[in-house]
Amino acid sequence: MATASLATPKTGSRDDGIAVRLLAWYDNHHRDLPWRVPPADLARGVRPDPYHVWLSEVMLQQTTVEAVKPYFRDFLAKWPDVKALAAASNDGVMRAWAGLGYYSRARNLKACADLVATLPGGFPDSEEGLRALPGIGAYTAAAITAIAFGRPAAVVDGNVERVTARLFDIRTPLPDAKPEIKARVAELVPASRPGDFAQATMDLGATICTPKRPRCMLCPLRPDCRAILSGDPELLPLKAPKADRPKRSGIAYVAVRRDGAVLMRTRAEKGLLGGMTEVPTTGWSEGRGGTGGDGKPPFAAGWRKAGAISHVFTHFELDLEVRRADVGEISTPAGHRWVAAADIAGEALPTVMKKAIEAAIPGATKKPKRP
User: Could you point out which of 133, 281, 354, 370 has its C-alpha 20 to 30 Å from the C-alpha of 179?
Assistant: First the structure.
């Protein structure tokens, strides 16, 4: 059972009751997450590790909690602190990140670790100092400041936006509503337990104040929620209509050598999927039915259609026709390399490339199950 000292924050805002009720709910209903220090442990003096908070927050950008958990654990097993991550190779980090998506995060993660490892005090403890680091924006800086260092900061992710829009019945569509939502959150943040308050609001949005069918009868903030009084909370937050994603298409070439090795190459460090491994492809042209670029394979061979895959990126949709060729010993095209069949699963392959390879060689990208 939560203690009074845990549930009662020190706050000077006019909405003191909201923070008190939310923290009391969090003390009893918080999610058990591998990067989180539970409120009871926090009350006993256990402090969150800034490295854990930073790593989890970067991984959680545009990614679900369940998807992040195994990656977070694997990263800690390989690199238990920021200096260990700084000492890792870029390729090693990209391999460990493969499948998590939004690969610029991995490149920024490594660059940030390299810099923080040189700082005498490690991670800065202010939003301003954190925002000067690679890959740390306003949200991540606020989250680290509040959760890792216990400093008041307005932490606003998608869950917090939803809770706040409903709580105050904010009718301005997103993204235009963001400044108003952040200002409302800043009014609510208590002077003590700001990290728990941020995590409590996230948990409320993830488990009670959900996008569909919110469980309003179980919500600790029900007495304060203006959306309940004015109508259907599920309608909020309002969002501006999204523009249709453009369509692109191309061809992926999966060359399989007699020994099972597959021809691959590494993409340029900058740009989409930068630094990741791929099979050769044409360019990705606009529109459906195109071949992209000049449509030429990496070398002349008996290419045959092996399937087709689709993949949705943030700003466009991609269709790839997959072609396969079985070859003997041939000269390796410049900029390419042969990857042994046993090593394919360990390559830094983005999801779109895993799909392409799987269409040509079912099971090739699957890691063997541990006994």
Answer: 133
Q: What angle (nearest 5°) sits at the alpha carbon of residue 35, between those of residues 32 and 38? A: 45
Give 182-212 pLDDT, tens digit per residue: 999 999 999 999 999 999 999 999 999 999 9
d(CA 107, CA 32): 28
- Six token digits for residue 139: 């949200």
Helix (H, G, I), strand (E, B) or coil at 7: helix
| Tokens standing for residue 261 | 């090795």
Residue 145 near residue 151 (C-beta atoms within 8 A):
yes
C-alpha–C-alpha distance, residues 357 and 103, integer Å: 19
Query: 133-148: per-residue pLDDT in tens?
Result: 999 999 999 999 999 9
Q: Among residues 57, 127, 347, 358, which one is catalytic?
A: 57
- Residue partners of 83: CB distance under 8 A and separation at least 6: 117
- Cβ-Cβ contacts under 8 Å for 334 (sequence gap 6 or more): none
Judge whether 161 counts as a catalytic residue.
Answer: no
Q: Which residues of 45-65 are buried (b: 16+ CB within 10 A; e: fewer)?
A: eeebbbbbbbbbbbbbeeeeb
- Torsion sign (Cα): 110, 115, 118, 119: negative
The predicted model scores a pTM of 0.81
Alpha helices in the chain (DSSP H): 4-7, 16-29, 39-43, 50-60, 65-78, 82-87, 90-97, 104-116, 127-131, 138-149, 158-167, 178-188, 194-207, 226-230, 351-360
**Domains of the chain, start order:** 4-235 (1.10.340.30), 247-360 (3.90.79.10)
